[in-house]
């Protein structure tokens, strides 16, 4: 038959995730680390990768890397779950805690994947929008969970794309106010140095997400992990793809994790450049820049979409949120190398000075 019946009605209106990753000389759109894995680590990687048997299935739970991450966090291995990027684990969360008749509390504007996963899994989404300055409307979130019907909540801290941390005090109030599973997405933890890890043992409903994609320069490899109570982790084992973390990724992850101290200098430079970029952006007339604890900055200016086009014409790709709900006229720029940041600043200044942001 040259005809196919329609896909599930759940998919109606869903737009595939599009990172708008257009090749450019200066790639500042995806919050990647501007530097690749250090040379000495790459050498060790090629030595280790040669030994990986490719004809055998990998360890389903990546137990070697799992044990290393657990130990570094002062936990037993059953508190850790590796995934094919944080993205896979976010999907597993929607599968395990969402679904028909279940409800997810979202705090937009935030990482759009959370709401998309809810829709694919027929999970109802309740939104408590952030305030105009992108701070969380804490009272509204606490009041909403008090109604008792929320099954899971995700708070990105720092939040993507706005950059701010959620306060520890608020997160603790939230954990105490509900038995919903609360995911604190710490994808940018290494740039903020703030974590809810100390509260894990005391809060069965706390789950933390981390990734190798940002600070550890492994966006191309796809590795992320949950830290959570074994009772919670066990539920994810029921929905996850058994071999989602392949043998090569497990090996790369172990080598990089063991050598993670070598990434600190690069992280420190990104944090210093973030401060420099923030100050420089503040001085550009008509540009509003929001404080950030991550490796990117959100900015707002008139004609932001035209600014995005102008930057791209000048070889600089940033992320255009100008047409997204709650992010009108906003662009997000990842912190690059000093030279990349200078190119971005020069092009943006030219756009503004040329009167094109009026
Ligand atoms: N959470 C947040 C807040 C992110 O920004 C990202 C990456 N864009 C992820 C999770 C997922 O990252 P990855 O799949 O690369 O681990």
N-to-C terminal Cα separation, in Å? Answer: 56 Å
Number of helices: 12
List each distinct ligand once.
Answer: 4'-deoxy-4'-aminopyridoxal-5'-phosphate
Low-confidence stretches: none
Helix/strand/pairing class, anyone? alpha/beta
How would you characterize the largest beta sheet?
7 strands, mixed
Specify the overall morphology. globular
Tell me the total number of β-strands. 13
- Strands in their spatial order, largest beta sheet: 2-8-7-6-5-3-4
SSE series: EHHEHEHEHEHEHEEHHHEEHEEEH
Mean pLDDT: 97
**Overall helicity:** 25-40%
Q: What does the radius of gyration come to?
A: 21 Å
Beta-strand share of residues: 5-15%
Keywords:
358 residues; 13 strands; binds 4'-deoxy-4'-aminopyridoxal-5'-phosphate; seven-stranded mixed β-sheet; single chain
Describe the protein in words.
By secondary structure, the chain is of the alpha/beta class. The protein contains 12 helices and 13 strands. It has helices at 39-50, 63-72, 85-97, 113-120, 138-145, 168-177, 189-192, 230-239, 247-258, 264-282, 304-313, 338-353; strands at residues 26-27, 80-83, 103-106, 124-127, 152-156, 181-185, 206-211, 224-228, 288-289, 296-300, 316-317, 319-320, 330-334. The strands form 3 sheets. Strands 2-8-7-6-5-3-4 form a 7-stranded mixed β-sheet, with helices on both faces. It has a 4-stranded antiparallel β-sheet with strand order 9-10-13-12. Strands 1-11 form a two-stranded parallel sheet. Helix 7 links the parallel strand 6 and strand 7 (206-211). Helix 2 (63-72) packs parallel to helix 9. The longest helix is centred in the C-terminal third of the chain and has 19 residues, at 264-282. It is globular, with a radius of gyration of 21 Å. The relative contact order is 0.16. The mean pLDDT is 97. The structure holds 4'-deoxy-4'-aminopyridoxal-5'-phosphate. Residues 31, 85-87, 111, 156, 160, 185, 187, 211, 213, 219, 224 line the site of 4'-deoxy-4'-aminopyridoxal-5'-phosphate (PMP).
